[in-house]
Amino acid sequence: MIPTPPSHSLTFRAPRRGSLVLEVDLRLDPNPMIGFWDESLSRMPLHIEFRRDARLMIINRYSLRGWSRELIRDLPHTVGPHRLGLQFKAGPTGPGTALDIWLDGHRLASLNALPHPARRGRYGLRRGFPNLDQISRIALPQAVRVMAQTGPERGARLTDRMEVTWTGPNPAHAVILPNDEMLTLEPVAGSEDIVGIVCAVLPGRVWHDHPQDLRLVNRDGSPHGHLPLSRPELTARLERLCRDGWVHLDALAALQALEHARAADVHDALSPDCLTALGQAAQAYRLGAFRPRQMMARPVPRKDPVAELRTRFDALPDGERNLASLAKLLQDASLSQTQMGHLLLGLSEWACTNADPVALFALAEQHEAVIPAPDTPYAASAGLPRLWALQDYDWLNHALTKMVPAQDKWIVTPALAWTIRALVEDRAGPRGHLSLWGREALLTAHLRMIRTLVADSGTQMRCPQLLDAVLDMIAKRDRLPDDIEPTLIRLVLESYGLVPEFWDRVRLLPAHLVPAAWPDWARMARELWTGAAGPNAAQIIAKFEQAYIVGTEAHRLSLLPEPGLPDPNSPAIGHLPAPQQQEIALRWLAFPRDNRPDPPPPDLHRLACEGVRVASSHTPRPAMGHAMRRLGTAAMAALRQLRADQPVKDLDSLRQQAATLLTPEAGYCGGAVLLAMAEALAHAGNTKTARHMLTTLAEGLASRDRADYSTTTALRHASARFAACCPDSDLRAFAAGILPPDPTLSGPATVLRAQANPLADTLVVLISCRPYLDNRVPKIRAAWGDLLEQAGVPMVVAVGGGTGPAKLVKGIVELPAPDDYEGLPQKILAIADWARTETGFSRILKIDDDCFLDPEAFFADLSALCVPYYGRPLRRTRGEMDRAWHMGKASSARGRNDLDKSPEPSVYADGSAAYLLGRDALRALNAARATPEGRALEAVSFMEDKLIGDLLALRGIHLSGENYDMAIFRHSAPGLPPLSNYENSFLPFAGSGLKVAHLDSGGDLQAARRALANPWPQPMKIWPPTVPVRLGWARNTLDLVSPSDRLAQARGAELAVIAVMRNEGFMLTHFLNHYRGLGVGAFLVADNGSDDGTLEMLVSQPDVTVFSTDTPYNESRYGVLWQEALLANFRQGRWSLVADADEFLFWSLPDPQRRVTGDLPGLLRGPAHHGADMVRLSMLDLYPPGPLSEARFALGPFTEATHIDRAPLRFDYAGRGPWGNCDSVTSNLRHRLMEAMGQPAARNLFVAQKYALMRYQPWMQFSAGLHYAVGGKVADRALAFAHFKYNSEFHAKAQAEVARGQHFNNAEEYGKYLALLSEGRDTLFAPDVSVPLAESPFLRDMVALR
């Protein structure tokens, strides 16, 4: 295999003498590969690969002759990340040509250029590693990070990453900052066997206090040297970091560069390339406040020669636009081979429709063009004809797999259609014919891919050319083997059985070519679409479901009442697979209703509760999860009865259940239950039954390998608990003979633990602070503290601000740690240390004082007993962590100015939920803190949850999140409840199994307690009809925020407006008033995280029903999924207008007062729209005659944004959309703005039409932005949107959207606008182009059509 040169790499020139220390975390990547390349990126003098599962490290090299000199070494066993050290030194062929490789303190290899003896080598020798001194670049995977690097120098040094280091013996102990703060120099793990390096990360705030030399001191405070600080030198360091790739690939380098550049205020002294790199880093790490001021406007991209040549080709007259003309253009062009490959691939769609794609790709061969690999949906689909011509079966199949999932990427359906026809017709290619069986396999693969993509509402599988090709295949199926016919017919029916255009085309086939069953399917589909099915609709939909036809979910949801279940007491969904039944039940249970029946049907409720777990597909599930949950629930109930001196029923059944879970797959949790029951029975005086429990444990373990079960977390902790707390000495001796207690888990005996639930054996630690002891803490005790008491689980409250050792006083632990937000890491570490040394509990459960806990759900789930570290997993790859979260809450200079510089990637338990630490984890925390790595982590960390996870990882303890079902709500606005965010789910409700809800400040704990007893979930939710029901992050879930009694108006209005909004306070009043004036009867709004008062205003409007969604905008097909959710759930078959806050529909000229009025419902009832399903709207960009900054819209948008381009639309783009059924027009204004910048946009950009006025039906399909649609009859008469994007808020809006990067192509259009505005072009009016709205010829023509 030829290695691909990395697109990004770090500059690292092999020192003549020096070292490089790396950390390799195999949790994050089981097989990371580190490439040490030469300057030309053509050779790798050194390559190191780790193979975690095989416990091997491979050392080899690559040259133009190929791979060679492979050394294989066993990986040392280590509890945390590996430390890889490379020590460069002089070799036989010169300085820097030899290298020692160290791993975890072991020297694994010594390399140099000379051949080495090898028994199996040619002539008894193996080549060495020449050219080590030519190493110039390193390609690092995310699992590897640079810890330190040194040259030949010894002593103190300030690195480019702004670290103070000391290399060699007699190091300094600390560095004194200008403000007299002391930073300890900690040893760099992995360097001690090479040279010995100590290091401290220098904060950016050193520049705040008139920076001077940094003083180095010994442990006793005596001077030990100094290092100079200067802004010119800082500037030079920043330039090197940016130029050499460190800011791009090394997190610490990027964060230090951003922090120091801002603190030292040196942006004006940096080069444009450096500023660009810093701007990109600020965006990558979500640190908008650290973005250089000069980069607020994006740089204008360079001209694209590929786009320019494509534009020249497209501009040719129809008769001259052919392959011969293209060949001449290519001959005259000065494109690189790669650019030519991109151009020809981009012309595949044109060639498949208008010419011969095989001849097109023959031009690629002729010009030696490099065609992009088929590794994206676009490249894979566009290149299908080329791969067909090459008769490359493997690459054809590879290309088909790369089209799934499409994820809104463009698929070139004409190329797909062309390839299907070529396979069906057995066309001869340049290399002859494909075999019959090859054609059969490829056609089946094509149809399976289409079947998968049709289920994605954003794909183009309803393209007319593709439909025609598929039906051509059906008509010519006699050319294929007989045994493939049923498969082809089935796959086509599954894909298109609920697509109207498909059946319209089937009608055109001769009757004898139509598969026998298809007329019946066509009749049933049309009965659904026309309403003729009546009460039989549910039975017809069930038939489509049984045939696995795509689209039945949307039809069920939209066409059947309640949503999708006409009779909840008899749901009639038993024909569906269990997960689909559970999904339908959950949709039904969560659906917003004004009046919920009480209670819901039990069977349907049970299905919905199971659906909660199915919907949380991101949550891992244990193999024996259901059995573990049943056993835990039974055991908790039995323990509760024993504590109350009540008789316990079915103890024998419980014992037998526990015996079945004495397996490694269940973590031997059955043994923990048997020991807990034995202890509780002993306390109750029933030693006979207690001994029976222990005998069952002994018998169950007898057939197991002792080495297997004796190390399990559940059994070890349960055994230690039994030895400490069982009151019967004979039983303790008996249990010790079965499984001796682990002395490392012993702790002090306390009454608190002895009286606690023996199965949970958990101390709940409520993290709070002194000011909240009199308000939040009592509310917690009232909301769920009594539930803890009933479960037998004690709770203490932890606060900071204590003096001396931590002490427990009346249920409150006073810790010697800060009592503010910034001191939270120290507080958590202090409570962990106190719990380890002062209590004997097997585990503690840390929970914040703004959370609601369901003790039954948490402790009855035995998953938590089986692991030392349990919580909601957060997996942070590079750039995903919010490193400035603490700054707004901090009080110290360190907290207000220093970024969190802890390492990413990282996996840790979410601190906003509750997480559990077993005694193994408590001991590991203490050990990790005592190491140099642990102290260094504490010095750069602010997030307590991440610090705990990072420290535990150092000791090899990893997080488990099995069955951790919970919800996170974040404070939204005054007077409104917290809204779902990050972990979108429900408040724990009866039967749900949800363990925790984070409520944030303002959360109503008593409301959560009431919800726990309620079988109906809160908040009420809906989902889009075309995506599965899912909970968690970015699941396109919509939560009802406004009162549910508004739903009847939203559902019943003759005309309603559907809108997606975020921070639209500037336009909102104008928007609502405009549409009320047009006769709109209700508004349905999906709010996407507004924080400017928009949400509060919407909720206050009696005709507005508001939903909230926390999904990023660019993961919703730019809002289309939310719009479809509102339409499908509330507006099926009724006129609805989908409008953004700056889009004002109109169809007549403004009156003298520049008002636009009308009766839109009356217009839609008129003859021009009779029988229509949707209306085409032209988007007309309006703008003020003066500067945008003066268009504040105090008098209204139509009054101040009065002008429009004389010809507002362009008709020069021939594309017909993703389904080939719509003409395209684009915005003249936006094109001329880009042209004014010298950056003409592609002709297909800025589409200025929307099919946004429709009577929604589930068989309709809409593109992103609703620019194109399929599945409905379009009215003959079009209307228009007045688009008021350009106003005094536009600059701020563009900046915000560029920072968010949620709009199309990472908000590229907004970035170009910023570049335009940065040039002082605040006026869009152009005298030779702009006219008042009433004078626009286009508008006059539109009005004349009335």
What features would you highlight for this structure?
Jelly Rolls; 10-stranded mixed sheet; 7-stranded mixed sheet; 49 helices; 50 strands; Glycosyltransferase family 2 protein
Structural description of this entry:
- There is one protein chain.
- The chain is an alpha+beta fold.
- Among the domains are: 1-152, Jelly Rolls; 231-295, no CATH class; 373-514; 756-868 and 905-962, Alpha-Beta Complex (Spore Coat Polysaccharide Biosynthesis Protein SpsA, Chain A); 1145-1230 and 1244-1289 and 1325-1346, no CATH class.
- Helices cover 37% and strands 17% of the residues.
- The strands form 12 sheets. It has a 10-stranded mixed sheet, sandwiched between helices.
- β24 (807-809) and β25 form a beta hairpin.
- α33 (824-838) crosses α38 and α47 (1290-1300) crosses α48 (1304-1318).
- The longest helix has 19 residues, at 436-454.
- Residues 296-300 have low confidence and may be disordered.
- This is Glycosyltransferase family 2 protein.
- It comes from Roseinatronobacter domitianus.
Topology diagram in text:
Elements: E1 10-11, E2 18-24, E3 33-37, E4 44-51, E5 56-63, E6 66-74, E7 82-91, E8 94-103, E9 106-111, E10 116-117, E11 125-126, E12 137-139, E13 144-150, E14 155-158, E15 163-167, E16 174-176, E17 182-184, E18 186-187, E19 197-201, E20 214-217, E21 223-227, H1 231-243, H2 246-249, H3 251-264, H4 272-284, H5 305-314, H6 323-332, H7 337-346, H8 348-354, H9 357-366, H10 377-382, H11 384-390, H12 393-402, H13 413-424, H14 436-454, H15 464-475, H16 485-496, H17 500-506, H18 518-530, H19 537-546, H20 552-559, H21 561-564, H22 578-590, H23 602-615, H24 625-643, H25 651-660, H26 669-683, H27 687-702, H28 706-709, H29 713-725, H30 729-738, H31 751-754, E22 762-767, H32 776-791, E23 795-799, E24 807-809, E25 812-814, H33 824-838, E26 843-848, E27 851-853, H34 855-859, E28 869-870, E29 873-876, H35 893-897, E30 906-909, E31 915-918, H36 919-929, H37 932-940, H38 944-954, E32 966-970, E33 979-980, E34 996-998, H39 1005-1012, E35 1021-1022, E36 1038-1040, H40 1047-1052, E37 1055-1061, H41 1068-1077, E38 1082-1087, H42 1094-1100, ...
Parallel strand pairs: 22-23, 22-26, 23-25, 32-34, 37-38, 37-40, 38-39, 42-49
Antiparallel strand pairs: 1-12, 2-7, 2-13, 3-4, 3-12, 4-5, 5-6, 7-8, 8-9, 10-11, 14-15, 15-19, 16-17, 16-20, 18-19, 20-21, 24-25, 26-31, 27-34, 28-31, 29-30, 32-33, 35-36, 36-39, 40-46, 41-49, 42-46, 43-50, 44-45, 47-48
